Amino acid sequence: MAKLIGPDPEWGAELWRLIYGLRSRMNRLCWVDHMTSMNNGPQPIGNLLGGNLLSRLEEAHAAYRKKLEAAALPGESIRDTEERLRAEEEKRPPRHDLPPSRPSVPAKVAMRRPPENERQADFFVASLYDVGARDSSSIMDVAVYRLSKRDKRAGEMIRYDLPSGYVEVTAGPYGMASVWDYDIVLMMVSHLTESMNLFKAGRGQMPGRKFVPHISDIAKFCRRGDGGRQADDIEAALDRLQGTMIKSVRETPSRNGKRNVREVESEGLIGLYRVVSRTDTGKVSSIEITAPNWIYREVTSGAKPDVLTVHRDYFLIESGLGRFVYRLARRAAGKTDAKWAFKTIYERSNSAGTFKKFCFTLRKIIKVNELPEYTLQEVAGQKGPLLVMRHKDVPDELLEPVTGS
Question: Which residues contact 109 (CB under 8 A, 6 or more apart)?
Fold first, then answer.
């Protein structure tokens, strides 16, 4: 039925209650009407529903028409008045004193809303969370974490075979670190990179491995709310990060080129950590995190750190797979485009479900197409579906035609 709109929503609500009651009463008495008509012939509807309900319905309808007549402009019909009031009501901001109506269920979006208390920092005010997000590019095309919030995957081991070797990710007893836990690593890498840039510019000291953020800085950097059980949440995340071990095995040619050199390195996503919190409130007073050697070396050694900038809206991506696809696009597509097979993304994403379920989830992300910086498109390939990741700012004349291969 059409929505009843008028100057006062209360009388419209009363009319709706009467109509709903009328319909419910009709449903309950439908079989009674049938049996009665068989015994006594047709009965007036008022005998079944009650004359009081009908009279109230008529009074509400009369009041509704009276309201329309009072709101009508000169030369305006009742129907025109009703349509005008409906259009005005739709433009009017929602009233917060009225109970919200049940909305229809929308399609799940890829991005969540930023926290309500998020504010843009003043220009030239140095704060820890102002550092742009960066990530180690060497692991951006493999998932060294789990993408699910529910499956802890404690004790599991995942292996990724790469052209120059392989990477093994082993979860500790607290479970494998999640892609949301990894936000703390992103913040650590970003701050270390910024400190290194300042050192090279002669405006700071050589950064050490110890990272000392405030809990509110972590929440702001990761664009999260600032509530909850801070001590329990941060300790659990740090336990998983420290217990998730990354074993990297690489084979590279020796200097004389006669034989390959095998290099093995194993370390957690973070090193040692220390959390001080109040026992009465659970509020965290201080946090100290030690950067692992492999991250510290990649950022501080060489003329250019082996890191890539991550868009700040990355932290608003709801889906774990959506986050991984963005990181893959950032690494593979950069400022142009890239094309990866669904099967390869599935193998690199550390997804615990079946390939069929993975494809279903990935196609939902493609359909919503809300990832920052990149557009997504599925094309057919010779060995299965392909995902095309294209940067939004690249000119069309620089792009190759989208075809399967």
Answer: 318, 368, 370
